[in-house]
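A common beginner's mistake is to predict each chain separately and then try to dock the pieces by hand. The better habit, illustrated here, is to supply every component at once so that their relative placement is modeled jointly.
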Amino acid sequence: MNSDINRPRPTIREVAALSGTSIKTVSRVLNGVSTVDPALVKRVNKAIKELNYRPNVTAGNLRRVNGRTNTIGLLLKDIANPFSSELHRAIENLARERGVDVLAGSLDEQPERERDLIATLIARRVDGLIIVPTSSDHAYLQKERASGMPIVFVDRPPNNLTADTVVATNALSAQAATEHLIGNGHKRIAYVGDSQSIFTAAERFTGFKAALQKAKLKLDPSIIHHGSEGHDDVAQFIDSVFARENPPTAIFASQNFVTIAAIRALKHKGLEKKVALVGFDDLAFADLLDPGISLVTQDISAMANVASGLLFERLNGKNSKAETHEIPTIFTPRGSGEIPN
Amino acid sequence: MNSDINRPRPTIREVAALSGTSIKTVSRVLNGVSTVDPALVKRVNKAIKELNYRPNVTAGNLRRVNGRTNTIGLLLKDIANPFSSELHRAIENLARERGVDVLAGSLDEQPERERDLIATLIARRVDGLIIVPTSSDHAYLQKERASGMPIVFVDRPPNNLTADTVVATNALSAQAATEHLIGNGHKRIAYVGDSQSIFTAAERFTGFKAALQKAKLKLDPSIIHHGSEGHDDVAQFIDSVFARENPPTAIFASQNFVTIAAIRALKHKGLEKKVALVGFDDLAFADLLDPGISLVTQDISAMANVASGLLFERLNGKNSKAETHEIPTIFTPRGSGEIPN
DNA sequence: GTGAAAGCGCTAACAA
DNA sequence: TTGTTAGCGCTTTCAC
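With all components supplied together, the output reads:
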């Protein structure tokens, strides 16, 4: 059984020799060219089976006319995070339909990791790139764009680069969620979110402010917290806010982990049924908590659809100027956002 | 700016021409061979920058001595499911350290998808494969194993094939969890799990039975449910069990979504603080619920470590016979499993 | 319908 | 230290 360990894989030449024909005919059989004599096809297939021959597609791609590798690169924040992995999965499905495989990698908010990974993906000659970017300057991609490599940005737009972009309606949706709280009688609403240097955080805060302004509520900086850096940080903010006089009656949490931290902090103080809470981003257990957590969620499969659609259209030669698509979100009331003032 | 759209990428030959040297010298510079005259290195690098040249690694691999592609294939149940994506992420980190990229795909419990994906990965000449298998017959991989392709199975062992395998201590851990319930005074414990045709489900049920037997409790088939096929199915079982006389006082849920369904069903009946519950697999929100959910969780990063370790050792020539590793799990009591009888 | 020869972009072997 | 040639496994071109 171990007789052929590390024996080099058979090549098309060996298949040709065994079936008594030329490598070109074997190639024709492999590619399903119909003009080959059925008897020859049979002999070739027999030899393929006998040798356990597996064509080397990377070798073929080298000479193949359009030079495609049928591989795309996908750069995510973190493969393990739910937003990333759902996006990945949706893109996998769409790529698979087209016989395209996906090389995915995590950036962990490290710009140099973004550049490194893109470099290795280009060295592998991926046909295109879908990027949830982390860098604040994408000028380094201008030459790639110019030489025809399709690149689509998702969740966050590029900086110093014109490219197709697919984002959620961050500002609009944050405004609507805030208005939902205002509609339930809240006039003092705390905001907890990421650093405003992050595109989505800035947009969501803009929407939050717009809602207050429209309702003629004034913005109290003492109940606004940017740059949340972990559960403890959020907990500390919430603790301090509720220890003071005139605490807020509602909280808008602008992002996944911030919402979780807020839930924890409220539970810890026994306030989860007294203080209204609306969060941005999905939480798998939102409906299992008490109260259920009202959330604004991104339509990930729509985002994947539009992003892949753009990428594959570009691959098929579409040459119009870069497009930006804003994908509507989904608001699901579950109780926490409907606690009245 | 669009002047060079679709202009073919420059090759090593053009870099050689522009820098007035040979392609071999350019190749040396690219590969950091130290014996090149510094002045030449400078000229070559200048030409590379000027042309925006990017080496084509797939072309290089074709001739390169060990024939490696520095790519591994990773087959998962579903890229978007938390177990899969965490495993993926952990493997990505370990692969990255070695300059290896990961091509991942979802099998969705479809055996033919497993075979198809493996075929395309072999056609791409991945250096090795890490598989969370779905097929019940891996004889089709014997030739690949024999010809030296390292394959490591994770979470479930292969059938009709000898290969490295990394699994959790499913039976032992299920037994310990059941004994934990018994230790809290429970004598009637319901079991809810996947079809026993699934390896992990069968193992966990074996552990469950062993605990009962050791405590001299008899197994009541009317409170055992296999082949859970969705939330409704689990809910229906739990509803019916608690509608009858002599209901169980505790539940062992053998898998992720089954546990969630059980939590929902218990909440629905207002029993979540009366009936003890221990689940297998991790839930992100386990500590946010009331009561917190006591869970047996797999040590995913240990599994990834061992699996990647094995794979890369094989790639480095390790030739000993196939190994099977059982990775201990982690039990975290959070309340639901400590409800007494 | 079939095959010989060239060549994809690179590295290996061997000279110089 | 540098360059020439061959060749990785395949597809293309073009002739038969």
